[in-house]
Amino acid sequence: MAKIIDGKAISLAVKDEIKAKTAELQAKGITATLAVILVGEDPASQVYVKNKKKACEYCGIRSLSYELPADTSEEKLLELIGELNDREDVNGILVQLPLPKGMDEDKVLDAISPDKDVDGFHPVNVGKLSIGKKGFVSCTPAGVIQLLKRSGIEISGKECVVVGRSNIVGKPMSMLLLKENGTVTVCHSRTRDLREVTGRADILVVAIGKPKFIDASYVKDGAVVIDVGIHRGEDGKLCGDVDYASVEPIASAITPVPGGVGPMTIAMLMYNCLSSVCED
Ligand code: NDP
């Protein structure tokens, strides 16, 4: 039976550490401020933004909210980002994705100052990650590293396989595992024999975007399995990219969905907000 990696508990521990640190900073007159921009009324995005604001409140981070109508022009949005870039009292800027159709997402994200890019999506921060320099790191893969470390799972020297090569999960995930001295293989839709590659993994991170795709036939006995996927099934229940019922009996450790990687993403966003005002 696998050890269940409790993302809810670990994310709470991370947020409590941040809360203690922000209290210390506040005593010195320093407050971290995150500006959150939401364009349009996408219900899922509204929930994400609400949860981010709630986490800010819990952690002692000030949040400023900019809710713009769906027909906002790209120019207006860029203007707002420019103003927030210039404001000394704003340390982090987050534009909730996806943006309404017709907006150039890359152009908008590139307009955020790399020093305030708490999502870690700006090419400067992506570049820093790839050459091992300090910068903001994409929150979901950063959260996976925390889950592994805080569960006492050694990464150094391990065969790490990442399924998925997206810019926000798969690619930064592979860079972070490499930084931790894992031996990293990245798989994608053109990988020839996925089972053969995933079957080698000591640590398997799955970010494929397909419900319950990875079953026990893809997993080595005793592997650590991290499921990044989130899907809502027709029954209304959440599930991941991993078929939990099939994989859990053979894994040595596994993240559940919900309650695994998901809660870590917001916790690491809070961590990035904190590091926007303090070095350590
Ligand atoms: P993307 O759709 O951007 O990327 C999916 C990746 O999986 C692609 O690289 C694709 O390959 C690869 N892939 C697709 N089909 C196969 C296949 N049959 N065999 C091998 N590889 C395949 O997804 P994201 O990275 O954005 O997200 C992945 C999952 O994580 C989703 O379920 C998403 O909801 C979830 N997610 C969860 C977060 C959280 O906070 N927990 C945050 C972000 C995402 P190719 O590049 O060749 O197309």
**What small molecules are bound in this structure?**
NADPH dihydro-nicotinamide-adenine-dinucleotide phosphate
Radius of gyration in whole Å, from Cα?
19 Å
The helix/strand class is alpha/beta
| CATH topological fold name of the largest domain | Rossmann fold
Overall mean pLDDT stands at 97
CATH superfamily annotation of the largest domain: NAD(P)-binding Rossmann-like Domain
Number of strands: 11
**Main sheet: which strands, in order across?**
1-11-8-7-5-6
| Principal-axis shape | globular
CATH architecture of the largest domain: 3-Layer(aba) Sandwich
Low-confidence stretches: none
What is the CATH class name of the largest domain? Alpha Beta
Ends distance: 37 Å
SSE succession: EHEHEHEHHHEHEHEEEEHEH
Proportion of residues in β-strands: 15-25%
Distinct helical segment count: 10
User: How is the biggest beta sheet arranged?
Assistant: 6 strands, parallel
As for the number of domains, it is 2
Write up this protein:
This protein has 280 residues and is α/β, with parallel strands linked by helices. It folds into two domains: 29-116, 3-Layer(aba) Sandwich (Rossmann fold); 139-262, 3-Layer(aba) Sandwich (Rossmann fold). 40% of the residues lie in helices and 16% in strands. The chain contains ten helices and eleven strands. The protein has helices at 7-27, 43-59, 74-86, 105-111, 123-130, 139-150, 170-179, 194-198, 244-247, 262-275, and strands spanning 3-4, 33-39, 62-68, 92-95, 159-163, 183-187, 203-206, 224-227, 231-232, 238-239, 253-254. The strands form three sheets. Strands 1-11-8-7-5-6 form a six-stranded parallel sheet. Helix 1 packs parallel to helix 10 (262-275), helix 2 crosses helix 10 (262-275) and helix 6 crosses helix 10 (262-275). The structure holds NADPH dihydro-nicotinamide-adenine-dinucleotide phosphate.
